[in-house]
Write a structure and sequence with these properties.
It is a single chain. The chain has 400 residues and is of the alpha/beta class. It has 14 helices and 18 strands. The chain has helices at 11-22, 24-31, 59-63, 81-90, 100-116, 134-140, 155-167, 171-180, 189-192, 195-209, 228-236, 298-314, 350-357, 380-390; strands at 2-7, 35-41, 55-56, 68-73, 94-97, 121-122, 146-152, 219-220, 239-250, 253-264, 276-283, 287-294, 338-339, 341-346, 361-362, 370-374, 378-379, 392-398. The strands form three sheets. Strands 7, 8, 9, 10, 11, 12, 14, 15, 16 and 18 form a ten-stranded mixed beta sheet that branches. The longest helix is centred in the first third of the chain and has 17 residues, at 100-116. It is elongated and about 75 Å long. The structure holds NADPH dihydro-nicotinamide-adenine-dinucleotide phosphate and L-homoserine. Residues 8-13, 41-44, 74-76, 80, 98-101, 125, 129, 182-183, 185-186, 296-297, 301 line the site of NADPH dihydro-nicotinamide-adenine-dinucleotide phosphate.
């Protein structure tokens, strides 16, 4: 029997316990041994919960118990999750986590410590909730040179944007619903300001390059500037607005960013709505492949954590390879990236806008007092210079 401990009995942690219990026959068969939840660490007690007798408040009960071989870290945050994880790995206990903040910040160090101690640090649930994306990158796509990854990487913001588009719903009301459903981070600013998607594209960029891409070096813009009026224009253009994480490893260098983009009906990410996420991966031999599923929520995320538990159970005393070393990737200057932009200006500034941007495609929509248009392709730097001269209300990048 393999003894498992869960750190943090919240949305994901309680899901991990539920998945292991509900699917125990399947899971035990696939693990090759029976899994047993021995401890659940949390700050609170859970009177009346079927697992209340497993709840402990002192992490040393778990870390000092040699019977515990696998730990699920579903607490979130950097501290004390970092210390607990490091101590578990140093004691030879594999750790499976949904904590992308910790993975993005300390991934290479924790993987190295795990391997030095003949155990594993696995993080399938850290990107895309229940979508298998880490394992495909680590195992299935090893014959590829991956040159681009584009994804909808945050369930909360995709849920908000979808509701704004389809129901004209108010931003704050939909965010409250996403929180109720357990999709949002403890501090939902991490979702709506794009930091969560940034951590996820950082993790994917690391697996794409095999080196370290630091989240704090990635240009990040959230969805708080997106309004109902933007969706009126998007509809008029046959497009929608999605928060995308993008990473490109091309001839001009390695670019990574997170921002809202206008995408057309033909784009593979157009139909990804609600809490669903999707990741498009472009490899030099395979071409395009896409991974789709629920990007947040209790059971989908827990399922991904438990898939890692099964992998650890199958590899007790053995290392599962993960190509991510701590050599830093220098990101290319994002000001050089070229694209078209959708721009809104006050109707009174139409002439200044045309003088600054030259030939543009005007966007007609049912909005009064504004002049809206799509620019020709230009670099971010050129755009910023022209936008300053034209005094714009807002701009959204266009994903081709
Ligand atoms: P929750 O806040 O629901 O759960 C975290 C749990 O950990 C809470 O019960 C919390 O207790 C407990 N906890 C916090 N600090 C400690 C501590 N020092 N010792 C013991 N217990 C502690 O968060 P989620 O389950 O939503 O998220 C957990 C992690 O999974 C995060 O990293 C998140 O980003 C990630 N994640 C979440 C997804 C989701 O859909 N919710 C999807 C994918 C990843 P208390 O409530 O008392 O603070
Ligand atoms: N808050 C995150 C999201 C949880 O909404 O995508 C899943 O990582």
């Amino acid at each position: 029997m393999i003894q498992v401990a869960v750190l943090g009995y919240g949305t994901v942690g309680s899901g991990v316990v539920e998945v292991i219990e509900k699917n125990k026959e399947e899971i035990n068969k696939k693990s090759g041994e029976e899994l047993n939840i021995k401890y659940i660490l949390d700050l609170r007690d859970f009177p009346g919960d079927p697992y209340e007798d497993k709840v402990v408040h002192d992490v040393n009960r778990i870390l000092d118990d040699p019977q515990v071989q696998i730990v699920c870290e579903t607490m979130g945050g950097l501290r004390p999750a970092y210390d607990f994880t490091k101590r578990a790995l140093l004691a030879g206990k594999s750790v499976c986590t949904s904590n992308k903040e910790l993975v993005a910040a300390h991934g290479p160090e924790l993987i190295r410590i795990a391997h030095e101690n003949k155990c594993n640090y696995l993080f399938e649930a850290s990107v895309g909730g229940g979508i298998p994306i880490i394992r495909p990158l680590n195992y299935s796509l090893t014959a590829e040179k991956i040159d681009a990854i584009t994804g909808i990487l945050n369930g909360t913001t995709n849920y908000i944007l979808s509701k704004m588009e389809k129901e004209g719903a108010d931003f704050a009301d939909v965010l409250a619903k996403a929180q109720e459903k357990g999709y949002a981070e403890k501090n939902p600013e991490a979702d709506v300001e794009g930091h969560d998607a940034c951590r996820k594209i950082a993790i994917l960029s690391c697996l794409m390059s095999g080196k370290n891409v630091r989240a704090e070096n990635i240009y990040t813009e959230g969805i708080t500037g997106i309004t109902a009026t933007d969706f009126i224009y998007a509809r008029a253009m046959g497009k929608t607005i999605k928060l995308l994480g993008k990473s490109v490893n091309g001839e001009d260098g390695f670019y990574a960013m997170v921002a809202p983009f206008l995408i057309s009906r033909e784009h593979p990410l157009y139909m990804v709505n609600g809490v669903f996420n999707a990741v498009c991966v472009h490899g030099n031999m395979l071409g395009d492949s896409m991974y789709y599923g629920r990007g947040a929520g209790k059971l989908p995320t827990a399922s991904a954590v438990v898939s890692d538990v099964v992998d650890c159970a199958r590899h007790i005393g053995k290392v599962i390879m993960c190509f991510w070393d701590d050599q830093e990737v220098a990101l290319a200057d994002m000001e050089r990236m070229r694209r078209r932009f959708f721009v809104r200006v006050d109707a009174k500034r139409e002439r200044e806008a045309i003088a600054a941007f030259g030939s543009v495609s005007v966007v007609e929509a049912d909005v009064s007092g504004e002049f809206a248009f799509v620019t020709n392709e230009m670099s971010e730097k050129e755009f910023n210079e022209k936008a300053e001269a034209a005094g714009i209300i807002s701009r959204i990048r266009i994903e081709e």
